[in-house]
């Protein structure tokens, strides 16, 4: 697992994907972006 | 508006917590059942793609969107103890309720959609199935929860959004602030001892 001085980059990427997925999947906005 | 809660939350969070503390905090986020969300997103994209091509999927796509929302609300509920998640839950619930009472489609007002490319407006008028949206008219229930807020210049993109989207983004902003600053506070306390 890639680490940046104790910070797990892979975990940050995974969390970013999860949070972005929450917003994109459950938003209602017409014309996503 | 879709990403604004995240983008503004991250910018403000990094300013307040600092780059290193902020990154460390983001790497320590643990959302219960969080992996469900990317799966729901992929499922929605599959629905978007298939509903124009497969007749029976078009017929049930509105119900399938509702299943996606119910699953999403359930996972948000599991994480309700995190600060900000109540807001996210409330925003998604608003979107869900207005879609449920309108046959599984999010109503979009013509006025709000007028800020978009005329192609979108024409598709709405034609009644073309467009992702998960439909035109808001006099038969629409709970119209105030639909996509009635137009966003356009000076805002960098043109969109029609709902009150639920705004509430949801406020929740994400609150959550990111809490997560990023909580780590900084913890480390400051440890260093002070």
Description:
Chain A is an alpha+beta fold and 33 residues long. Chain A has one domain (1-33). Helix content of chain A is 55%, strand content 12%. In chain A, strand 1 and strand 2 (7-8) form a beta hairpin. Chain A is rod-shaped and about 40 Å long. The model of chain A has no long low-confidence stretch (mean pLDDT 76). By secondary structure, chain B is mainly alpha-helical. Chain B has one domain. Chain B contains eight helices and four strands, in the order H-H-H-H-H-E-H-H-E-E-E-H. A two-stranded parallel sheet of chain B has the order 1-2. In chain B, strand 3 and strand 4 form a beta hairpin. The A-B interface holds A 4-9, 11-12, 15-33 and B 1-3, 5-6, 20, 23-24, 26-29, 31, 34-35, 37-38, 40-41, 44, 68-69, 72, 76, 88, 92, 95, 98-99, 106, 108, 112-113, 116-117, 120, 130-133, 146-147, 157-162, 164-165, 168-169, 172.
Topology:
The complex is a heterodimer of chains A (33) and B (193).
Chain A: E1 3-4, E2 7-8, H1 9-26
Antiparallel strand pairs in A: 1-2
Chain B: H1 4-17, H2 19-27, H3 36-51, H4 55-78, H5 85-100, E1 106-108, H6 110-113, H7 118-126, E2 133-135, E3 149-151, E4 159-161, H8 163-192
Parallel strand pairs in B: 1-2
Antiparallel strand pairs in B: 3-4
Mean pLDDT over the full residue set of chain A: 76
Helix content of chain A: 40-55%
Strand content of chain A: 5-15%
Structural class of chain A: alpha+beta
Count of extended strands of chain A: 2
Widest sheet, order of strands of chain A? 1-2
Strand content of chain B: 5-15%
Widest beta sheet: strand line-up of chain B? 1-2
* Pattern of helices and strands of chain A: EEH
Rg of chain A is 13 Å
Low-confidence stretches of chain A: none
